[in-house]
Design brief:
Blueprint: H1 2-14, H2 20-32, H3 34-72, H4 95-125, E1 127-131, E2 138-141, E3 147-150, E4 155-159, E5 168-178, E6 187-190, E7 194-198, E8 202-207, E9 213-220, E10 223-227, E11 233-236, E12 240-245, H5 258-265, E13 266-270, E14 291-297, H6 298-309, E15 312-315, E16 324-329, H7 334-342, E17 349-352, E18 355-358
Parallel strand pairs: 5-6, 15-18
Antiparallel strand pairs: 1-4, 2-3, 3-5, 4-5, 5-8, 6-7, 7-10, 8-9, 9-12, 10-11, 12-13, 14-16, 17-18
InterPro entries: FecR, FecR_C, Ferrdict_sens_TM
Pfam families: FecR, FecR_C
GO molecular function, one term: sigma factor antagonist activity
Length: about 350
């Protein structure tokens, strides 16, 4: 989405049709997407060279028209004495050279596009990935000093050149970031529905593809969330949380419902606490090996239990999926957790290998 918008704005800029707001938007997008800044700059430079050649061609044409008008009015252009021999020199129009320059520029543009595509393919082929299975967690330290804790069933991807100017990662799943501060190079976390831009702070991002929402919860510092479907930018303060729907509701897809889209797909709230202590934050409880849930459907809880315990949950009775639960699992086994849920709801379960069937 961002890449397409960048090239749309580049086209308007090169055609001298971009407004001041669009130029400002282009600058912001290039700043937030450093991997696109180089090819965009190359195209801009080649375009300017072509424009300069075209201007020179126009100047020559104007000069020729001026000479013709003077001759038509009988104004002498100049006089060369007869006794002065004039060497005959083949004079060729510069226009073919200008056409050649234009063609060369087009070739260069094609070569630049080919080079950049090849470079991106090679770069993507050497991308580092850290993954965790359901029931497991891990932590890593990136080249720039940033610490990342990765929750179960998650994947973090980043370039082999991470930390050398480029500080962008892609997250699928959940992770807690303690970002090393670099004023000139913000860290950008890409998720399916939003990008998060930050200089140095601590926050949690939850972006599982099977979940209904993507969330970012700020603990300290400040982060900027850029919503992909409408380019909205939201600054979060400590203890604030942003929630974005992973799929737009039908009413929000209509061009006549832009206001509804903004209201129904993005919400801003505060982090929640599962105990009296101010450090007992629900959104980061997984780092303390706790599964905290509040008024969640059995379907949503089952997804979390699959990641937390490393099992699979299947429902035989669809009506049971609508049951709602609130509680905390910490030291319990999966059997103990299910038995605790049975105290507040009537259901049965059986375990077949690593699969739990809810009746």
């Amino acid at each position: 989405m961002n890449t397409r918008r960048i090239w749309e704005l580049m086209a308007r800029k090169l055609a001298n049709e971009a407004t001041a707001d669009e130029l400002q938007e282009l600058s912001a997008l290039l700043r937030d997407n450093p991997d696109t800044e180089l090819p965009a700059g190359l195209v801009d430079e080649l375009w300017q060279k072509t424009a300069a050649a075209t201007s020179e061609d126009s100047a020559m044409a104007a000069h020729d028209r001026h000479i013709s008008r003077m001759q038509a009015m009988g104004i002498p252009i100049g006089h060369v004495p007869a006794e002065t021999p004039i060497p005959l020199t083949a004079i060729r129009s510069r226009r073919p050279y200008l056409w050649a320059a234009a063609i060369s520029t087009g070739v260069l543009l094609c070569m630049a596009a080919w080079w950049w595509t090849s470079a991106k393919k090679n770069s993507n082929a050497i991308t580092s990935e850290v993954t965790t299975r359901n029931g497991s967690r891990t932590s890593i330290q990136l080249a720039d000093g940033t610490r990342v804790w990765l929750n179960a069933g998650s994947k973090l991807s980043y370039s082999k050149d991470f930390g050398k100017g480029d500080r962008s990662v892609t997250l699928s799943g959940e992770a807690f970031f303690d970002v090393a501060k670099q004023a000139d190079h913000p860290l950008v976390i890409h998720t399916e529905t939003m990008d998060i831009r930050v200089l140095g702070t601590r926050f949690n991002v939850r972006s599982y593809p099977e979940d209904k929402t993507t969330e970012a919860s700020l603990i300290t510092g400040s982060i900027e969330a850029i919503i992909k479907h409408n380019a909205t930018r939201i600054i979060l303060k400590p203890s604030e949380k942003i929630v974005v729907l992973n799929q737009l509701p039908a009413v929000a897809r209509s061009a006549k419902a832009q206001t509804a889209k903004a209201e129904t797909t993005v919400t801003l709230s505060h982090v929640s606490y599962y105990a009296a202590q101010t450090t007992a934050i629900t959104e980061t409880s997984w780092m303390d090996n706790k599964l905290v849930f509040k008024d969640e459907s059995f379907t949503e809880l089952a997804q979390q239990m699959e990641r937390f315990f490393g099992v699979k949950v299947r429902f035989d009775n669809p009506q049971l999926q609508q049951l709602r639960f609130t509680g905390i699992f910490e030291q319990e086994t999966v059997q103990q957790a299910l038995s605790a849920l049975q105290l507040t709801a009537a259901f049965r379960y059986e375990i077949q290998n690593d699969t739990i069937i809810i009746h």
